[in-house]
Amino acid sequence: MKILMLHGINHNMFGKRDPKQYGTTTLAEIDAQLKALGKELGAEIESFQTNSESAMCERIHQGFADGVDAVLINAGAWTHYSFGIRDALAILTVPVVELHMSNIHAREEFRHRSVFAEIVRGQICGFGSDSYLLALRAAVSAARASA
Q1: How do residues 8-36 score in pLDDT, each as one tens digit?
Q2: pLDDT per position as a tens digit, 64-80
């Protein structure tokens, strides 16, 4: 099973950026945790991070072409306004799980809306870096159920 993990804008700054909201765990540490859990669950995890919206869309298209079994996405601020990424995700025919480390519904008003919500299998938020691990478990389960 192949799972594509998409990290969005500014996530390369995890561990340095606003520790109150995002903790001190780095992106490399998150990816290592995902790979370890993936191995336990029988899934290969490929992670991709970009600060370029077009590069994110291109990677989603490549995931479709590669036939990944599920996609995890933490798009960061793009979650709230990127219809381009939403449209790219809508091309996918596999489970997509949206995730966020912070609880976007308990933050600023503009963060309460996800333009992806209508097209993803589900959303996990508010559990810090554990949100990634919960999302991976959900994606693997959904991929197995739809296989």
Answers
A1: 999 998 877 776 766 678 999 999 999 99
A2: 999 999 999 999 999 99
Catalytic residues: 22, 100
Domain ranges of the chain: 7-70+82-146
Domain 7-70+82-146 has CATH 3.40.50.9100: yes
Which token pair is 121? 């299998």
DSSP for the chain reads -EEEEEE-TTGGGTTTS-HHHH-S--HHHHHHHHHHHHHHHT-EEEEEE-S-HHHHHHHHHHHHHHT-SEEEEE-GGGGGT-HHHHHHHHH--S-EEEEESS-GGGS-GGGS--TTTTTSSEEEESSTTHHHHHHHHHHHHHHHHH-
Residue pair 71/6 in contact (Cβ under 8 Å)? The answer is: yes
Query: With a threshold of 0.90, does the pTM exceed it?
Result: yes
